[in-house]
UniProtKB/TrEMBL annotation:
Taxonomic placement: Bacteria, Bacillati, Bacillota, Bacilli, Lactobacillales
Positions annotated to bind ADP: 21-25, 154, 185-187, 211, 213-215
Protein name as annotated: ATP-dependent 6-phosphofructokinase
Gene: pfkA
Subunit text: Homotetramer.
Enzyme Commission designation: 2.7.1.11
Length: 319
């Protein structure tokens, strides 16, 4: 093992830069050469590849986004694209590749592994929807961003005695909604993993109002439905002076939290150590506060489950 490549792919997440830095610096300190690949799988196929120096990753640990850029490149689902990517890696004499990304990026890593090319996946996504890891890089920062926004919405909701439906990201997963909902003191958390009854929610809002709590915050995971649609359904049961807010891409940006920086640093360094031990075709995670890895071929046999105890806890705290 002499040369490794590193890239970020799919949806960007705060802490990706810290992960790139950790991979590059650990590898360089072990005498490896590191090549950065810009624009994810699109850049891989196009040969957008450059040799990294220690200074290339200076002053990025604190920055959101990704210095290696990211891209969507659906063509990588075709064998032709995958083989072209491997051709480029061979042309640059890159022995192994570290991919930092989410679910889609992991599928790309799986394909490379199936073709016999050594690849390691690091979970970089705000959604936290990757199996075999309690947390993904970027999740903690996104949750903190959402909580800050909920705090602000609470001020205006209270002043006007309104009901707010706050739509948060997460794709098909309810993790951001659950964590931010509990931390933000939401009255209701609506996630794809739990059924809900809109008539019951309307009843709860009415009961809260009758008890003197005139403003309500509902945190809605985007995987359930859009906030506007939810509000329209809710209004069939009463006006509640309801408003909807879609937090959108603000959740993907910002300086990574200390937790995300530490997680990215640990996982990035671990990826290099595993490669040096001859391991590959794996995805890295953190389970019960321990770094772990699993064959990427097994990753999709397992379905990610959010911590649904948060849902139950919130039911009793919101009353
Ligand atoms: P994320 O990694 O954040 O889930 P995407 O789903 O957009 O983001 O995936 C990122 C990239 O991974 C895609 O643009 C594509 O290049 C690659 N990819 C996604 N799905 C597959 C697949 N089934 N096979 C090969 N490559 C894939």
């Amino acid at each position: 093992m002499k040369r490794i490549g590193v890239m970020t792919s799919g949806g960007d997440a705060p802490g990706m830069n810290a992960a790139v830095r950790a991979v590059a610096r650990r590898a360089m300190s072990q005498g490896l050469e590191v090549y950065g690949i810009d624009y994810g799988y699109a850049g891989l196929v196009a040969g957008d590849i450059f040799k990294m120096e220690r200074s290339d990753v200076g002053d990025i640990i604190n920055r959101g986004g990704t210095m290696l850029y990211s891209a969507r490149y659906p063509e990588f689902a075709q064998v032709e694209g995958q083989l072209k990517g491997i051709e480029q890696l061979k042309k640059f004499d890159i022995d192994a590749l570290v991919v930092i990304g989410g679910d889609g990026s992991y599928h790309g890593a799986l394909r490379l592994t199936e073709h016999g090319y050594n690849t390691i996946g690091l979970p970089g996504t705000i959604d936290n929807d990757i199996p075999y890891t309690d947390f993904t890089i970027g999740f903690d920062t996104a949750v903190n961003t959402v909580v800050e926004s909920i705090d602000k919405i609470r001020d205006t909701a209270a002043s006007h005695e309104r009901t707010f439906v706050v739509e948060v990201m997460g794709r098909g997963a309810g993790d951001i909604a659950l964590w931010a909902g509990v931390a933000g003191g939401a009255d209701e958390i609506i996630v794809p993993e739990k059924e809900f009854d809109i008539a019951k929610i309307a009843e709860n809002i009415q009961a809260l109002r009758a008890r003197g709590k005139k403003h309500t915050i509902i945190v809605l995971a985007e995987g359930v439905m859009h906030a506007d649609e939810f509000m329209t359904q809710l209004k069939a049961y009463g006006d509640f002076d309801a408003r909807s807010t879609v937090l959108g891409h603000v959740q993907r940006g910002g300086s990574p939290s200390a937790r995300d920086r530490v997680l990215a640093s640990k996982m990035g360094a671990y990826a290099v150590d595993l490669l040096l031990q001859g391991k590959g075709g794996i995805a890295i995670g953190t389970e019960n506060n321990q770094l772990t890895y699993h064959p990427v071929t097994e990753l999709f046999d397992q379905k990610h489950q959010p911590d649904l105890s948060l849902y139950e806890i919130n039911k009793s705290l919101a009353k």
